[in-house]
Amino acid sequence: MSQHTRSALLELDANHLIHPIHSRQAVASGHVWVRGEGAHLIDADGRVYVDGLSGLWNVFLGHGRKELAEAAAGQMETLGYASGYAGSTNPRAIELAGRLSELAYPSVNRFFLTSGGGESTDSCIKTARYFWKVRGKPTKTKVISRIWGYHGVTLAAMSATGINTYWPMFEPRVPGFRHIGSPYPYFYEAPPGKTRGEAAADELEAAILEEGPDTVAMFLAEPVQGAGGVIVPTDDYFPRIREICDRYDVLLVSDEVITGFGRTGTMFGLEHWGIEPDIMQFAKGITSGHIPLGGIGLSDRVAETLDAGGPIWMHAYTYSAHPVSCAVALANLGIIEREGLVAQAAAKGEELIHNLEEAVGDHPHVGEVRGKGLMAAVEVVADRDTKALFPASEKVGPRLLKAVDDRGVFSRVRDAVFVCAPPVCSTSEDLAQIAAAVAGALEEVTGRS
User: Fold this and answer.
1) I need a labelling partner for 307 at 20 to 30 A (CA). Which of 54, 142, 172, 375 fits?
2) 10 Å Cβ neighbour count for 429?
3) What is the DSSP string of 212-269?
């Protein structure tokens, strides 16, 4: 495409399209993506970029997998849509639910399908409230989640999301939501006698006791906080969380929207710590972003309540169990298993983090390089010794992101934290380019003084 064509497209875009996280300025200087090939995106000017964030954490396999397109086309020719409401089903949805039962945590065997992560969050919240009402505890309605947690931006999901920039223009938030601190090892300061993981988990117990255990329905947490900065908890955090939820009869809900289907080097995130949730939610990687699909998985205990013959679970989406999305998901899961991509994500994640540590680990403005599988972050600080941050007015994060972009890597920042999550098909050259781009951008934006 010519520069003229790109300019014309951006003009049409500015005149007619509203974007997620809308900014007129960002639209004017934005990319027009025209093609995706493996781990790369190609823009309207013909420039090739490493897709350092797998789209939005979701294109796990990489762009343009023909098997997924063929699965979609074949299903569209056979049955493009059918209602998934009770009393109506289709073979692909049935097959996918069975496949998920084989892959998910052993106690999670029943699945409700949605169009994406935000719908999945709302589905978890409503299911938890339904569960406790049926079990004779109607006051258990509150949701506890964490600062820096991201769970979507529908009104209930936004209220659970712990990133406060999402709130102000849409408040008041839904009542009954509370946030505790993130188990952010780089910054978390534990009191004497406790580890950081224990202290961070104990914040949940304190919040439950303050709210009243008979009012708290669920605790919602990502195994690794993604949009909040790829925050990996210490190994003693989630086992203690599980104990606290059991002690106070609170459902543990694992938000696997990013961590599900191999991204962290295990099929699902809590497997790293040997525990299981009561409810899990997923999206993104189930179709590698090629078509919308999400869902929730229920433990046998929770599913039994839905089957117990109580009031009907009056929760529904038009596109639940969409046969085309389910067909793509089945093809995607087949590729993940046949090609051993979960193990590849673990190995390539180690390579990515090693590259970043080699490239910027000793930089005076890098506080930490961290990650889990193919999720990684570089914490950029003003002072490495004190962990002091750059003033927001200096716009270090946006400047860093632009400098990385100028070096052919497309990704994202949270404040001055560079985050990346490239596709599992990324080559060693792609992973090296990400690290080199971050190193060059740091020198350009912060220097070494």
Assistant:
1) 142
2) 9
3) -GGGEEEEEE-SSB-TTT-BPPPTTHHHHHHHHHHHTT-EEEEE-TTTTTTTTSSSSG
Q: How many CA atoms lie within 13 A of 46 on its CB side?
A: 4
Tokens 């690794």 correspond to 224
Q: Are 114 and 120 in contact (CB under 8 A)?
A: yes
DSSP character string of 336-379: HHHTTHHHHHHHHHHHHHHHHHHHHTT-TTEEEEEESSS-EEEE
Cα gap 296→283, rounded to integer Å: 9
CB atoms within 10 A of CB 368: 17
In angstroms, the CA 28 to CA 6 distance is: 11
What pTM did the predictor assign?
A: 0.96
Sheet holding 251-255, edge to edge: 108-114, 294-299, 279-282, 251-255, 216-221, 142-146, 177-180
Count CB atoms within 10 A of the CB of residue 296.
26
Place of tokens 């056979």: 78
**Nearest to residue 117, comparing CAs of 152, 146, 145, 84?**
152
Which letter, b or e, does each residue of 298-315 get, where b requires 16 or more Cβ atoms within 10 Å of its Cβ? bbeebbebbeeeeeebee
What counts of helices (H) and strands (E) characterise the chain?
14, 15
φ and ψ of 307, to 5 deg: -90, 0
pLDDT of residue 309: 80
Backbone phi and psi for residue 201, each to the nearest 5 degrees, phi listed first: -65, -35
Per-residue CA distances from 171 to 22, 79, 228, 378 (Å): 18, 42, 20, 32
Q: Are 431 and 388 in contact (CB under 8 A)?
A: no
Neighbouring C-alpha atoms within 13 Å toward the C-beta of 83? 5
| 379/365 Cα distance (integer angstroms) | 8
Tokens of residue 11, six digits: 């003009």
Weakest mean pLDDT among 25-29, 256-260, 364-368: 25-29
**Hey, is 130 helix, strand or coil?**
helix
Q: Give DSSP secondary structure letters for 184-203.
A: -TTT--PPTTS-HHHHHHHH
Mean confidence (pLDDT) of the chain: 96
